[in-house]
Amino acid sequence: MSHPPILVVTTGGTIDKQYFDALSEYQIAESVIEKLLKVSRVTHPFRVVELMRKDSLELSDEDRALIRATIAAAPETHVVVTHGTDTMTDTAKMLADIEGKTIVLTGALAPARFAESDAPFNLGMAIACCQAAKPGVWITMNGSVFDALKVRKDRAAGKFTQA
Amino acid sequence: MSHPPILVVTTGGTIDKQYFDALSEYQIAESVIEKLLKVSRVTHPFRVVELMRKDSLELSDEDRALIRATIAAAPETHVVVTHGTDTMTDTAKMLADIEGKTIVLTGALAPARFAESDAPFNLGMAIACCQAAKPGVWITMNGSVFDALKVRKDRAAGKFTQA
Amino acid sequence: MSHPPILVVTTGGTIDKQYFDALSEYQIAESVIEKLLKVSRVTHPFRVVELMRKDSLELSDEDRALIRATIAAAPETHVVVTHGTDTMTDTAKMLADIEGKTIVLTGALAPARFAESDAPFNLGMAIACCQAAKPGVWITMNGSVFDALKVRKDRAAGKFTQA
Amino acid sequence: MSHPPILVVTTGGTIDKQYFDALSEYQIAESVIEKLLKVSRVTHPFRVVELMRKDSLELSDEDRALIRATIAAAPETHVVVTHGTDTMTDTAKMLADIEGKTIVLTGALAPARFAESDAPFNLGMAIACCQAAKPGVWITMNGSVFDALKVRKDRAAGKFTQA
User: Fold this and answer.
1) Residues of A in contact with C57 (CB under 8 A)
2) Tens digit of each residue's pLDDT (9 = 90 or more) over C52-86
3) Residues 6+ apart with CB under 8 A from B23
4) Which candidate from D43, D145, D158 shows the least CB-CB separation from C159?
5) Which among A41, A80, A158, D96 is least buried, having the fewest CB atoms inside 10 angstroms?
6) Is the Cβ of D51 closer than 8 Å to some Cβ of chain C?
């Protein structure tokens, strides 16, 4: 198995939320994805591009077009996208026609800065999936590898299930 | 994509080391793997079997035969094995002739009980790999999916590389 | 030194904030103070009373009167109050006339559920201060023991300083 | 209340233990005390002196004499010493004749690098105690402030109790 570099595109979402006491609220802060990869002793080559810091409910069509264009233009064929979970499937649909790449979207239901979070596990799932799965668009959440065009988020239950 | 249940076999290793003050040392304790899967919001069906609690330098041929027999007899075709990293490749070799299963070995270089550990990320890699990769034996460490028969651990450097 | 039991009164505040993905926001949840004391191997006798779960900007005069009445009526002479930091000094003023007790208010600038938080340290400060300081009202924040009637929170700077 | 600077002397102990995979064992590493103080948003002035990195079972009379000399010679009157718990009371006895200083010894039963550790809480206890208690030698462990000359460690039970 060869090990070409992985492109990691961060767009915001709960995974990157931080609590700001002076504002009495949470906001998406500088991405912690690169730090997570370092703590996880990742030596596989990768490149991180922080595209935006948005809750996925606030992503516009222009934002999704930017995500698509970034991935399409990149030399990498293995791509991970960290993204808010609420509209992850909408972005996935826009990536479906990109050929020759294995693209995996993931995120988290609890911020990575929390002591107990699904963030590192989900990131690991995506990093493995982009290497092991066949080309196409995938979502890794709740311990499952999903075909990204055949999954939905059940918001109340806090989990992804087959659509 | 269908989602058959995953068998998770735990054998010990650094991933499960705990510090016992009364003994002034680290020992492998009750596996934390099931707790990690819960914290990671895994709803994908799985079953955990705690086979042993050994440092992989102490695994005997009988131990490895037991690991093999457990996996071969199980109904699951998707299998994750958590294992000490030092002799992970030796156990992998003994699993190579099991047909029709996707078996992924992983472990960690820092105990899962540490605040900063590669454990959750590596477990996520393995859980994704057993679903996405084709049948055979794999190792997920340091952010890479390796063919388990073509990798070695560089102990001094603390990482796995292509053999 | 004798070790009479400590009364720990929890009122909410950032220290107890949890992130709820289904609501896309942080809310004060079941207090984690008792869990923090357990993780910190506290064997000193104590009793936890969860009075309310409020951001301190939302505390009313009735809320503060309830906090005061609870402390005044309790048999314990050593008291810790976990509280939002924004109006901690207002509650402290209302406790100043309670005689014969050492009352220490503390809180946190980052939720205790975060991997990196001042919560456990601040709680430890308060638990020690109620045993070591003379009777009166104290605040422990930012590594300092303050006379509670002579301190203010500098909200923008995120710290407490002598008033 | 005034806030003179605190001297923090680190000597090793479980609080600073790290796991080294290449060695398959734990060792006392670079002290994490300064980082804990930073994470805990300590703005109170302090100075950290890393004297040694020893398990307290390995401290010699010369080591304890060095700890004593460092504290006696320092300008600070408020002193915290982080120390292995096994012979903490022995070192405390050697500090009892230093006049005019409030000296607090603490440590931890689980390494600070663990996700669940008593380390930050205990450090907070000591930092508060050196400001609030009267001059003398104290130990803060298990949620209690102890007169350091009247306490012992019950090793099997993993806790400190009145001697």
Assistant:
1) 24
2) 999 999 999 999 999 999 999 999 999 999 999 99
3) none
4) D43
5) D96
6) no
